[in-house]
Write a structure and sequence with these properties.
Elements lengths: L1 E5 L9 E7 L6 E2 L4 E6 L4 E5 L4 E6 L6 E3 L3 E6 L28 H9 L6 H10 L17 H26 L17 H16 L2 E9 L1 H18 L6 H14 L5 E4 L2 E4 L5 E3 L1 E3 L2 E3 L2 E2 L7 H16 L13 E4 L19 E5 L3 E7 L2 E15 L5 H16 L7
Parallel strand pairs: 12-16, 16-17
Antiparallel strand pairs: 1-8, 2-4, 2-7, 3-6, 4-5, 6-8, 9-19, 10-11, 12-15, 13-14, 17-19, 18-19
Helix pairs in contact: 6-7, 6-8
């Protein structure tokens, strides 16, 4: 009997996925739970296992195609015989799609509702006529509802940007810009890359970004790390890095500065009870930010274990969508690549993110004498709508004090 392979739902707010790679070809033997294909959503990349053992007889959607959840994407013949009539399997859709009312698209409205987009029919009509994606607009109405004024303000801002860029477009049309030549290669953006691009533009449009930079003496932390490196690796099975030290320092500092662990909803400030710390992980195909939940309850070693686990599974495409959602503050560490200072973009709806630069030995002046110390730059980007410079600098000063006078033990 043939077995249908369907596009799974990878989280409550995810309703489609892009097939990025088939790991088996038609005619190949597959075993149940063996990785069959890879998908990319706006939250996470994942490997999808086969739902049954048998011969992969038909692939209904190719790499690069975006497919709604619950749609049949392939057929496995577990009898290794002729595949039964599968006509129409490629068109399998959610049951409610068969009952559409002429003149409107209930799938779009249902998807908007599931994404938390609240808007009246008038606002939706204006958005359709103007080609506006409602996900790009932050509603200022009751409960985050998108109002007519929000649409008009968005159109005004879009026109202002168009006026600024119009000369550049004209230059490109006249051959003075950077139009691609016949020798250039044009490659479509991946689903993850598109999601990152949209998220970054939306964040810049939403928050008033300000970045402050502090220099920190990491000598004490580096010494403790090196003294404990060998026994830690033997006990835990992985190497101790500097990242858990930064994570622990940030978490404990956030306890004293809860405004940096908050978010904004309209004109209200939402103070988060838990510190759900996102730690950015660079991948060959993009960037992902898995979340350490209730980080305030974990020890240094516990945080080190979770950082190592989440980073490993992120690179193996084994994270669930829930593990990259709900962050309240983000830590990014481009210092591992040699970067000294960064000005990160805030991960909405958060209000701040910390960037850690490379820890390098430099000559510094201490008590009027020159000394060689392990130094690093910490860059805090915060939303100036909510956080003043004095508060942001106070957070950095407190964090610096924790790192320079490190007193935590490695249990």
């Amino acid at each position: 009997m043939p077995s249908n392979v369907i596009m799974p739902q990878m989280g409550e707010s995810i309703f489609e996925g892009t097939i990025t790679k088939w790991l088996k070809n038609v005619g190949d033997r597959v075993e149940r739970d063996e990785p069959l294909f890879e998908i990319s959503t706006d939250k996470v990349d994942s490997e999808i296992p086969a739902s049954a053992s048998g011969i992969l007889r038909e692939i209904l959607f190719q790499e690069g195609e975006t497919v709604e959840i619950n749609t049949v994407v392939a057929i496995i013949d577990d009898d290794a015989g002729a595949v039964q009539d599968s006509a129409g399997a490629g068109n399998a859709v959610l049951p409610q799609e068969a009952e559409q009312t002429p003149g409107r698209d209930p799938r779009t409205e249902a998807a908007d509702s599931r994404r938390g987009i609240r808007a009246s029919p008038l606002v939706r009509r204006m958005a359709r006529e103007e080609g506006i994606d409602l996900r790009e607009i932050e509603g200022t109405g009751l409960g985050g509802r998108i109002t007519k004024r929000d649409i008009l303000n968005y159109l005004s801002e879009r026109e202002r940007i168009a006026e600024v860029t119009r000369p550049l477009v004209q230059q490109a049309q006249e051959g003075l810009g950077t139009a691609p030549s016949d020798q250039d290669e044009i490659v479509p953006m991946t689903a993850m890359r598109r999601s990152i691009a949209e998220h970054m533009i939306s964040s810049r449009r939403t928050s008033a970004h300000v970045t402050s930079v502090f220099e920190v003496d990491m000598t004490a932390v580096v010494r403790i790390k090196e003294e404990n490196a060998e026994k830690f690796a033997l006990r835990e099975g992985f190497k101790l890095s500097l990242t858990p030290f930064f994570v622990k320092g940030v978490v404990d500092t956030l306890k004293d500065f809860p405004i940096l662990n908050a978010s904004m909803v309209g004109n209200d400030i939402v103070y988060k009870k838990d510190i759900n710390l996102g730690v950015a992980v660079a991948l060959d195909w993009g960037l992902i930010v898995p979340v350490i939940r209730k980080a305030q309850q974990k020890t240094l070693v516990g945080l080190a274990r979770e950082v190592a686990d989440l980073s490993h599974r992120a690179r193996q495409k084994q994270l669930s969508p829930e593990e990259v959602q709900g962050g309240t503050f983000t830590l990014t560490n481009p210092g591992v690549f040699g970067s000294l200072i960064g000005t990160p973009i805030i991960n909405q709806p958060q209000v701040a993110t910390l960037c850690v630069g490379a820890v390098t030995k430099r000559a510094v002046v201490i008590n009027d004498a020159i000394a060689i110390r392990s130094m690093a730059y910490l860059s805090l980007t915060f939303d100036h709508r909510l956080i003043d410079g004095a508060v942001g600098d106070g957070f950095l000063a407190s964090l610096r004090g924790r790192l320079e006078g490190w007193s935590y033990t490695i249990d």
